[in-house]
Amino acid sequence: MQALELALSQFLLQWHNQQPLRWHGTRQGLRFYLHLYTGLPLDDHIPREADKHIGIEEVFSAGFVMDRTRIGEDSMLGGGIPYHFIVRLRSDPSTHIDETLVRAIIERQKPAFCTYELQILSR
Per-residue pLDDT averaged across 28-44, rounded? Predict the structure, then answer.
């Protein structure tokens, strides 16, 4: 029985050490590291990014498309910023979040070609 417990604990330790590497450069990894620093909940059970304490919204644009389109409904003039995302942190007014440290976390976790916007909001 001890050998089984030892093998299980070694497996979990190995899995835990590898997970952050797999998540590097992903929304899941960025949210996890921001959660570790801020203490804000992960809110995995909430489907909409806009409703989460740590919301990460990707701004996608299809680029130039030749087809029928309706301005304001399924297209926009001028397009968007490619590879851009918005990070929104929603905390209690009593919680202090160091913006400089949050930006450093985002810079280390985001893909190099991406740009971002940071919004720190009080609930």
Answer: 90
C-beta separation of 91 from 27 below 8 A: no
Q: Which band of pLDDT confidence, cut at 50, 70 and 90, is reported for residue 107?
A: very high
Pick from 52, 49, 57: nearest CA to 86: 57
Cβ atoms of residues 49 and 55 within 8 Å: yes
From first CA to last CA, the distance across the chain in angstroms is 49
Query: Per DSSP, which regions of the chain are E strands?
Result: 54-59, 84-91, 115-122
pTM, two decimal places = 0.70
Burial level of 38, CB count in 10 A (0-12/13-18/19+)? buried
